[in-house]
Design brief:
alpha+beta; 4-stranded antiparallel beta sheet; 5 helices; 27% helix; globular
Length: 197
């Protein structure tokens, strides 16, 4: 934790030195964007959460940490973690959670290498399956891949989705705010294209 904080402060100082007023402006814009783009913390949100629609289950995806980035605006928003659910491309900003209501059954989650240039998306690496149960909640956490570099200047850190038990997930998410998609985007249906990993 201390190492991450020291690295975060050093990177922030470097970004501000390199970008001058632009870095400070990016930081300010990022802070405002994150504030506008997040809602209540999970424990408060859960009390007034919308009901799960009939025949569906709810998948929560949460990023317990902020993304390390050279961009000051990304530092302030928490960065953007892109993932896919089957062929839909979604994202969540760091230190927050998002949810998707899905039909009961097996679904495929993946992360990293989803962005395709010059545009569009593809199914990412680190494929994970998740069973969605009608009327129930399931949780997946965005975790760094062991042995991957902590900082990837353009693509962000290498991450994967890990299914987590409900009790543990709710403890880890307790203070994380809902990502209301001002700083990110909601799921884009059928935006991922098949590719080998």
């Amino acid at each position: 934790m201390k190492h991450n904080m020291a690295a975060a402060l050093a990177l922030l100082a470097l970004a501000l030195c390199l970008a001058g007023c632009g870095g400070a402006m990016g930081l300010g814009v990022g802070v405002v964007t994150r504030t506008a783009g997040t809602g209540d913390a999970y424990t408060a949100w859960k009390a007034s959460a919308p009901p799960i629609p009939p025949r569906l289950g709810r998948l929560f995806v949460y990023a317990p940490d902020r993304q390390i980035s050279i961009w000051t605006a990304d530092w302030a928003t928490g960065g953007e973690f892109v993932f896919d659910v089957d062929r839909d491309v979604c994202d969540v900003i760091g230190s927050s959670f998002a949810y998707v209501d899905l039909p009961a059954g097996v679904h495929f989650l993946s992360a990293r290498d989803i962005k395709k240039f010059p545009g569009g998306f593809q199914i990412g690496k680190y494929l994970t399956t998740v069973g969605i149960v009608q009327g129930r909640t399931t949780f997946a956490r965005i975790d760094p891949v062991a042995g991957s570099p902590a900082l990837v200047t353009l693509g962000g850190p290498t991450v994967r989705l890990v299914v987590v038990g409900n009790t543990r997930a709710e403890e880890e998410m307790a203070k994380l705010p809902l990502d209301t998609h001002v700083a990110s985007f909601s799921c884009k249906p059928r935006a991922a294209e098949d590719r080998g990993t």
